[in-house]
Structures are given as C-alpha cells and as structure tokens.
Write a structure and sequence with these properties.
The protein has three domains: 167 residues, VKOR domain (de novo design (two linked rop proteins), Up-down Bundle); 211 residues, Glutaredoxin (3-Layer(aba) Sandwich), CATH 3.40.30.10; 108 residues, Oxidized Rhodanese, domain 1 (3-Layer(aba) Sandwich), CATH 3.40.250. The chain has 20 helices and twelve strands. With 533 residues, it is of the alpha/beta class. The strands form three sheets. A five-stranded mixed beta sheet has the order 3-5-4-6-7. The protein is globular, with a radius of gyration of 28 Å.
C-alpha cells in the first residue's frame, strides 16, 4: 500500500507541475492529456486538481508509516483511519475518470494511473481491515525497516525520473475529431479573439502564431496575399502561441500586441512585430509603440502589469487542446452554409500561396466532407515546390497531429529545438571552405527576392519553403554550407538555415558535411568578402 501511495504521489506531483502552465511540455502516453489539462476540470477552487491528489497520497503515506512506528491503541487508530481515506480517494478517482469518459471524451493516461493506484489501495485497505487482529498490536521493527527501504528506493528512482520528465517531455498529438463539436470549436475561436474581417465571411482562417518565429513571418506573405485576393469572403483570426522555450521574448511580445489591441492597433502591431522580430525586448517593444502611434502611458502600464498574460496562457491552453504543437499552425473552416459542424483543414508550417489558395477555394465552393480511411486531419498540406497545388490540399476532417513523426521541420516547436542540430561555423571557417578546392556548396535559404539583391558568389538559392522536396537532389559527398541574412541564424533554433540543416540530417546526410554559417550574408559582407548580385 505504501508503494502504491508513493507511485500515486509521483504522478500527482508531475501533473501538478504540468497543470501550472499549458506551456510546460508534457510526456503523454496516449492522445488526450493536453485536452484534459486544458479543460475546466483541470482546476478546482482555483487549485490544480492533481494537487488534491498530492494531499491525499501524502496523508495516506503518513498514516501507513506512522502506523508502523506505533503500537497498541495508537497503531489501531491509525490503521482504522486508512480505510475511510482510501474510500475518499476511490470516490474522487471514480468521479474524475467518469468526467474523462462521459464529458471530455478524452483519456489522460497519467490520470488513469493515479486512479488505478487509488483503486488498488482501497482494495488492500478493505482486505487489511477484514484481517486486522482484534487485540492491540506491538510495534514491528521489521515492518518499519521495510517501509523505510521503500521510501529510500522511491526517492532514488523518482527524483531523477521526475527531472527527466520535466526536461524531456513533449506535447502529445490530440486525437482527430471528425466534424468537431461545439466545445472544440469554442476553443478554436474565442469571442474576444483578434479577428480581421466580418464574422459573416464564408471562410475563416485561424492562425496560431509566435511573433519571434521566423517561419511565422515567412507565412505572412501568403496570408496577406489571400486577404487581398479574397477580400470579404475570408476572415483572419489570430491566436497567441509563444514558444517560450525556443523564443524567450515571444511571450512579452504577445502581451504587447494585446496591449496594442486595447488601443485598436493589433493588426498593425502584428505586421510590425513580424518585421522586427530580431529584437522584441521590452525596450524595443516600447519603441515600436511610438511607430504604432500608441499612447505611451497606457501601453507601458499595460505591458508592465502583465494583465494580458492570462489571455496568452488561455490561447496556449486552447492550442494544446486542439493539437497545436508548433508555429505557424493554420485552421481553415467554412464559416457558413453547413447544417452540421464544419470540417477543418489544417496546415502545419508556412504554406505556399498556391496551397493556401486552393484550400480557401475548396472551402468557398463546397463543404469539406469526411471520407473513409485515415483521419484527413493527419494529412498535412505540404508546401511542396514541385507538386501541383491541388495535390497538396488535404481537407482535414478535424484537428489532428502531424503524421510524419514528431514535428514538421518547417514548424517551430520545442521538439524541433531538441532534435539533432547541424554544426555552426563563423566567417573564418566559411571563407576557408569558400576558397578551398573543391569548394563547398553554399546554399542560400532566403526568399528568391532577397537572393537576387545579393548573395555569396556561386551560392545556390533554395528557399526554405521549397527546401524539403529539393534536398533529395543534393550530393551527400559534398560539404554543404547553409546560410541566410544573419539575423538570428545561429541563436534561433527555428531559423531557416538550421531548419534546412535538420532536414538534411533527417535524410541521412553526414553531420560532418552539413554546416550552418552563423554570421550569414551580413557577416560575409562585414568581413569585406565579395557579394554577387
């Protein structure tokens, strides 16, 4: 019983830590942990629900261990208290399991593990009560030593395991929802979500974005082009999804955009922050407020108060519950004309405009129907540079995770940052590789327009959105040097050059032959080296 109480305590402590913030990466053994964590049942009286499990298991453990140290009447009283406490734990576990089964329709395996421990504890407590001797028992030294050994072993195993879970967790893939119900749709668009366009628009695009994410900034060209082409037919909704473990300035930038929204300047702030994402520190945000023509006093007071943090955390929780694992993630749904809840089309990563336009056109012309076979939410609209746009469109039957194993290389996420990274070099090493014969293959991963304005002589231009399909044609024998403009190409794990390097490593290229030029074109120019136009 003590061992089960310690196992339940471990689970409750881990869940209590996880439930303090939706941005904590959670190791989930199944598919519904994040949905349960994001539900209203995750907190009771303002306290994370697993914390009550911590109290239960601690009290139970104290009763059991104190009973082994006691004798006579005290031992009998302590043992008599175990069964009522175990009964309370069983009832609470049964209630919460019923909530998962009949209300949330999602399962958290950690919660089920705690419920199983509570059920076994109750069963053992009943057997112990039936077998308890009538007389007053003496203290048993062997029982005390055995329980002390259990405590020592639990601490020795549990502490490093807890540390490992905290640092190595990931975000679980949410189950696919065919024609999601009102609860899921309510999480997709909140009444106070920032929206551009009329609620009467025929198509709604919901973006979960991070202002410090290079891939999100890359996606804006396609989004702005769609807004210009389709006009009043589409509405854009922005949800905050700062990846704090990858982008430390993103959360404060998200709060700043909401402070700008309070003065009617959200969309101006969104465009400006994406352009200025190389510096989103608080002093820089205060400077940008002047460019946005915001009243400085209210803006600074709003940003300093941290009041907008609750909105950011709510958006994070909604995103996790809907299966968002990285940025940018787009959901496209037909706003009107369906008698049943709309199906959802999902895009992970920055889409090429042809892909995005084909999805919008499909939603405008007819409702997306669910089909037999694998959930369509698990088919990503891949931003391929050599495929027909229509072939890249995947009408998602609901919300779902990425089917390609882990995160997509063009999506910023904490999991991508933990993957094997390409080695980085500075300007002296890059110059040596440029001058050495045979020369290394320099690849510029910036957009074609930037490449035309200037690049390293002889460099090949493969824009990051087209890099994945074209990377298969690259030689594995030649040293490859990936570079971009120099803005954060080394510091940001989501930078284009590093993302391209991870794609090559995933394809089996040698880590010794895949290098990222950290200083980029800016460092090359500052060193007085030639630039080709």
């Amino acid at each position: 019983m003590l061992a089960l109480a310690l196992a339940g305590l471990f689970v409750s402590l881990y869940l209590s830590w996880e439930y303090t913030s939706p941005s904590h990466p959670m190791l989930c053994l199944g598919t519904g942990c994040d949905f349960v964590r994001a539900s209203r049942y995750a907190h009771f009286l303002g306290v994370p629900t697993p914390f009550y499990g911590v109290v239960f298991y601690v009290l139970l453990g104290l009763l059991i261990f104190s009973g082994s140290l006691s004798s006579g009447l005290m031992r009998r009283r302590l043992r008599a208290m175990v069964l009522p406490l175990a009964s309370a734990g069983l009832l609470a576990s049964a209630f919460l399991t019923g909530i998962e089964a009949f209300v949330l329709h999602h399962w958290c395996e950690w919660c089920l593990g705690s419920a199983a421990a509570a059920s076994l504890i109750f069963l053992i407590a009943v057997i112990d009560a039936l077998r308890a001797p009538v007389g007053l028992e003496p203290c048993r030294r062997g029982e005390t030593l055995a329980q002390a050994l259990v405590l020592i072993v639990a601490a020795a195993l549990g502490t490093p395991l807890f540390i490992h879970l905290v640092h190595r967790g990931s975000f679980s893939a949410a189950p696919s929802l065919v024609h999601p119900g009102p609860a899921a749709l309510a999480r997709l668009i909140r009444p106070d979500s920032e929206a551009l366009g009329s609620p009467r628009s025929r198509v709604t695009i919901v973006e979960f974005g991070d202002f410090e994410c290079p891939m999100c900034a890359l996606a804006q060209a396609s989004i702005e082009r769609a807004l210009a082409q389709y006009g009043r037919n589409i509405r854009l909704v922005f949800r905050q999804f700062p990846l704090t473990s990858v982008h430390p300035q993103a959360e404060k930038a998200a709060e700043a955009s909401l402070c700008a929204a309070a003065q009617g300047r959200f969309w101006r702030a969104e465009r400006l922050f994406y352009r200025k994402q190389a510096d989103l520190s608080v002093p820089a945000l205060e400077r940008y407020a002047a460019e946005l023509q915001l009243m400085p006093g209210p803006f600074q007071a709003c940003l300093a108060s941290g009041n907008m943090s609750k909105v950011v955390q709510r958006d994070l929780a909604d995103g996790r519950a809907l299966g968002v694992r990285g940025t940018p993630t787009f959901f496209i749904l037909r706003s009107r004309g369906n008698a049943r809840p709309p199906a959802i089309q999902t895009i992970y990563g920055p889409p090429q405009y042809a892909v995005l336009s084909a999805m919008i056109q499909q939603a405008l012309t007819r409702p997306v129907q669910a089909v037999a076979g694998p959930p369509l939410a698990n088919l990503r609209a891949r931003p391929s540079g050599n495929s027909h746009p229509a072939a890249a469109v995947s009408p998602a039957a609901g919300f779902g995770g990425n089917p390609f194993g882990g995160d997509d290389p063009l999506t910023c996420s904490a999991n991508e940052a933990r993957r094997a990274q390409p080695a980085e070099i500075r300007t002296p090493a890059a110059r040596q590789l440029f001058q050495h014969r045979p020369r290394a293959l320099f690849i510029d991963v910036r957009p074609a327009s930037d490449y035309k304005r200037g690049h390293i002589p002889g460099a090949l231009n493969i824009p990051i959105e087209a890099f994945e399909p074209r990377s298969a044609a690259l030689s594995r024998r030649r040293t490859i040097v990936l570079y971009q403009g120099g803005e954060g190409s080394g510091e940001d794990a989501c930078a284009f050059s590093r993302a391209a390097g991870r794609i090559l490593l995933a394809r089996g290229f040698s880590k010794l032959k895949v290098l990222v030029y950290k200083d980029g074109l800016r460092g090359w120019h500052q060193a007085g080296l030639p630039i080709q136009k």
